[in-house]
Amino acid sequence: MATVESRALKSVPAGINDDIGEETRLKLYRSQVLLREAEQRAFDLFLQNLVKGTSHLSLGQEAVAAGFATAMQPGDLSFCTYRGHAHTLARGVPVEKVLGELMQRDNGLMRGKGGSMHLTSSEHGVMGSYAIIGAHLPIACGAAWRAQYKGAKDVSVCFFGDGTTNIGAFHEALNFAAVWKLPVIFVCENNLYMEYTPISSVTAVAQPAADRAAAYGLERILIDGNDADIVYRTAQAAFAKARAGGGPSLIECLTYRHSGHSRADPAKYRPDGELEKWKERDPVKIYRERLKQFGVDDQAIVAIESDVRKIVDDATEACKAAPMPSLDILTTDVYADGGFAWRN
């Protein structure tokens, strides 16, 4: 049974690395920094009234998206919630495409028509962000069933929040995936709160995902979702199991969002000191120190941070200069004719 890994960081001689390797570690750090900078920029643009409507940020949860995306292979599929910016960026979608979509610009991922909660890029394996709680879990099962039927080796990964575990679709999808041994990985990002309500207040078990795994014949997997190394290793094992025909995995990642549920949420319901305590486990800070302990030079770390900031700055300016979508696309990609053609 896998449990939370909370081992203290130990001093490691310079130049020594473990099973992950320096190249992958640098990818993991770069991904986390990119997600942090892009999400913070999205917040800043909202304050400038350049991002309209609501959106849901993943500040503080970067290790989950970075760890899984780094472990994925080309062709693997991601299914996200409305809190999907980080997962979309982690799969390689350019920052400009994401910020452009949030700013309703023509250079956006869907030319400004989808917005924050519907980011999609099949080119990058991002099969949509879903605003309806739990709706994407059965859809991920469908994609995995297709892979199984065709003998393909791609794996579907479905990310969702702790509140989803009390939705019927969660249990239906888990049961279906377990019965058919589908190549799908269910990843619960447990940030302790559903919207404004603590998940612990409305759930009969302590761990809303991990403690229910046994009901579907699955291993109980509960990990530190703020440590990208732990996330990456756990993801690798789940991918290997799925590709070998071993069926689904259910992984609960303990993490914490630094901001409220959405832009309209000041998060005053949180106990005093809780945020500050979790910020001591900031995934970006943890990993920066991890790189140093494995002998990565400070200059290499700073170079990643500087490069990422430039990417986000350049993307921001490109989006500010981009035009709004033209009216002639207003009714495109909206309706289907209901005929047989779409089945082919």
Short note summarizing the structure:
The chain has 344 residues and is an alpha/beta fold. It is 39% helix and 10% strand.
Structural class: alpha/beta
Per CATH, the architecture is: 3-Layer(aba) Sandwich
Instruction: Give unreliable regions as ranges.
Output: 4-15
In CATH, the topology is named Rossmann fold
Q: Largest sheet at a glance?
A: 6 strands, parallel
Approximate helicity band: 25-40%
- Note the run of SSEs as H and E: HHEHHEHEHEEHEHHH
CATH superfamily name? Thiamin diphosphate (ThDP)-binding fold, Pyr/PP domains
Gap from first CA to last CA: 44 Å
Q: Give the strand order of the largest sheet, numbering strands 1, 2, ... along the chain.
A: 2-1-3-4-6-5
Kindly provide the name of the CATH class.
Alpha Beta
What general outline do the C-alpha atoms trace? globular
The Cα radius of gyration reads 20 Å
Mean pLDDT: 92
Tally of distinct domains = 1
According to DSSP, the number of beta strands is 6
% residues in beta strands: 5-15%
Can you walk me through this structure?
By secondary structure, the protein is an alpha/beta fold. The protein has one domain: Thiamin diphosphate (ThDP)-binding fold, Pyr/PP domains (Rossmann fold), CATH 3.40.50. 39% of the residues lie in helices and 10% in strands. The protein has a 6-stranded parallel beta sheet, with helices on both faces. Helix 4 crosses helix 10. It is globular, with a radius of gyration of 20 Å. About 3% of the residues have low confidence.
